[in-house]
Amino acid sequence: MAVLVADKGNFEKEVLRSEIPVMVDFWAAWCVPCRIIAPIVERLAEKYAGRLKVAKLDVDSNQELAIRYQVMSIPTLLFFKNGQVVDRIIGAVGEQEIVRRIETLLGQD
């Protein structure tokens, strides 16, 4: 599977110190919109493998990270580059919008 499971134990290593940009999907099992975008997130993880790291973070198990990054509603996609949040999508959006944000992220230098 191309999607990494992020949690408080690996967040710094896998997200904040990543050599490549990272998209983190803040989600929960009970969240219907989260389940709607899950297949999109998985497809994009495969499509951008090697250029973008994609991680899912369960907010119920990692509340302190959700609070730290001010995730007030889910799904929320946070885009990290060099350990910093550079973009955010709140709510379930279409694949084309997520792709647009990824392409913008990957085009930044």
Listing every helix as H and every strand as E from the N terminus to the C terminus, the arrangement reads EHEHEHEEH
What is the strand tally? 5
Number of helices: 4
Helix/strand/pairing class, anyone?
alpha/beta
Rounded to an integer in angstroms, the radius of gyration calculated over CA atoms is 12 Å
Estimated helix fraction: 25-40%
Quaternary organization? single chain
Strand share of the residues?
A: 25-35%
Please tell me the overall pLDDT.
95
pLDDT under 50 segments (min length 5)? none
What is the distance, rounded to the nearest whole angstrom, between the alpha carbons of the first and last residues?
28 Å
Walk me through the topology.
Blueprint: E1 3-6, H1 11-16, E2 22-27, H2 32-47, E3 53-58, H3 63-68, E4 76-81, E5 84-90, H4 95-107
Parallel strand pairs: 1-3, 2-3
Antiparallel strand pairs: 2-4, 4-5
Description of the structure:
The protein is of the alpha/beta class. It is built from four helices and five strands. The chain has helices at 11-16, 32-47, 63-68, 95-107, and strands at residues 3-6, 22-27, 53-58, 76-81, 84-90. A five-stranded mixed beta sheet has the order 1-3-2-4-5. The radius of gyration is 12 Å and the shape is globular.
